[in-house]
């Protein structure tokens, strides 16, 4: 038995030593941004830190807890000179981080007063394969939109730098959210992308659909009354926010009809139930002919 145990234990100890060493490296918080509905953005720098789109890190704040590590998806792009995470204040640890960063104070917080942060990572996810396809479907549910913030930023940097060598030609983005509380910080990014793509006369590069799944009848009526306005009353985007849940069968058939004979990457960050639905649709809408359209499903669950 000991022969079977020694090998895995040795590898486990090596991994723990590497992670301990990485967690001891100095991390500098360069900026703290307070977004609406108690969401904060931490922009950080760390020597030798290299990331890819959609990856995540583990974060520890010793002034809040000396032992707790929490995973957060990176919302910055590899092309930026910092890395960032968005933290929704929903529990004791995040409340402690919120206070430690001075976000509960009115006055300006000096940089030297910001808490020490330990970072372990980054760690890979399925979203890293986005640039392997010409056409992709990105589906985020609620806070599962965070990896796609990194993806969309990176796509835009690559597109502006050298669009001719970018394999990715079309993005279909879906965001399912129960309420509007998580919209504000991400809507800013979409507004920026929308405006810049129109300036470059390539508004068709990104098609996005935002679905509110938790509205009551009063809110739905308000939505109908304002549907004809030029910009959406909730997000400020030209694309209107949709009420209810998407008809995935129709969405897959429509996309398959627009891109015959291609491999389409389907990327999800969301709950297991939605993953089962998208997986079944990916299989049923893929053709048996190798030259036909094929949907390749990739997922991250929370």
Automatic annotation (TrEMBL):
It catalyses: NADPH + 2 O2 = 2 superoxide + NADP(+) + H(+). PROSITE patterns: FAD_FR. GO terms for cellular component: monoatomic ion channel complex; NADPH oxidase complex. GO terms for biological process: defense response; monoatomic ion transmembrane transport; superoxide anion generation. SUPFAM superfamilies: Ferredoxin reductase-like, C-terminal NADP-linked domain (SSF52343), Riboflavin synthase domain-like (SSF63380). It holds the Pfam family NAD_binding_6. It is a multi-pass membrane protein. InterPro entries: Cyt_b245_heavy_chain, FAD-bd_8, FAD-bd_FR_type, Fe_red_NAD-bd_6, FNR_nucleotide-bd, RBOH/FRE, Riboflavin_synthase-like_b-brl. One of its GO terms (molecular function) is superoxide-generating NAD(P)H oxidase activity. Keywords: Cell membrane, Electron transport, FAD, Flavoprotein, Glycoprotein, Heme, Ion channel, Ion transport, Iron, Isopeptide bond, Membrane, Metal-binding, NADP, Oxidoreductase, Phosphoprotein, Transmembrane, Transmembrane helix, Transport, Ubl conjugation, Voltage-gated channel. It is found in: Cell membrane. Residues 19-129 form the FAD-binding FR-type domain. Its cofactor is FAD. PANTHER family: CYTOCHROME B-245 HEAVY CHAIN, NADPH OXIDASE. Catalytic subunit of the phagocyte NADPH oxidase complex that mediates the transfer of electrons from cytosolic NADPH to O2 to produce the superoxide anion (O2(-)). In the activated complex, electrons are first transferred from NADPH to flavin adenine dinucleotide (FAD) and subsequently transferred via two heme molecules to molecular oxygen, producing superoxide through an outer-sphere reaction. This is NADPH oxidase 2. It comes from Platysteira castanea. The lineage of its organism: Eukaryota, Metazoa, Chordata, Craniata, Vertebrata.
């Amino acid at each position: 038995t000991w022969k079977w145990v020694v090998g895995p234990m040795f590898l486990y100890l090596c991994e723990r030593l590497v992670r301990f060493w990485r967690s001891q490296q100095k991390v500098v918080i360069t900026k703290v941004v307070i977004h609406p509905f108690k969401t904060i953005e931490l922009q950080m720098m760390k020597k030798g830190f290299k990331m890819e789109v959609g990856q995540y890190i583990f974060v520890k704040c010793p002034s809040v807890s000396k032992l707790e590590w929490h995973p957060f998806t990176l919302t910055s792009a590899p092309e930026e000179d910092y890395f960032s995470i968005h933290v929704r204040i929903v529990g004791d640890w995040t409340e402690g981080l919120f206070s430690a960063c001075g976000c509960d104070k009115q006055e300006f917080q000096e940089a030297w007063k910001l808490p020490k942060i330990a970072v372990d990572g980054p760690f890979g996810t399925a979203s890293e394969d986005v640039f392997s396809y010409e056409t992709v479907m990105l589906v985020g549910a609620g806070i599962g939109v965070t990896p796609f913030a990194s993806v969309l930023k990176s796509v835009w940097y690559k597109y502006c730098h050298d669009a001719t060598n970018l394999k990715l030609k079309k993005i279909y983005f879906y965001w399912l959210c129960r309420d509007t509380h998580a919209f504000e910080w991400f809507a800013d990014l979409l507004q920026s992308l929308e405006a810049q793509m129109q300036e470059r006369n390539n508004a068709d590069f990104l098609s996005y659909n935002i679905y509110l799944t938790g509205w009551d009848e009063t809110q739905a009526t308000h939505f109908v009354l304002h549907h004809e306005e030029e910009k959406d009353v909730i997000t400020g985007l030209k694309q209107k926010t949709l009420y209810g849940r998407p008809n995935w069968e129709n969405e897959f058939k429509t996309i398959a009809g627009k891109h015959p004979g291609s491999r389409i990457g389907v990327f999800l960050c969301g709950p297991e139930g939605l993953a089962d639905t998208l997986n079944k649709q990916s299989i049923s809408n893929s053709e048996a002919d190798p030259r036909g359209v094929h949907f390749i499903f990739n997922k991250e669950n929370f």
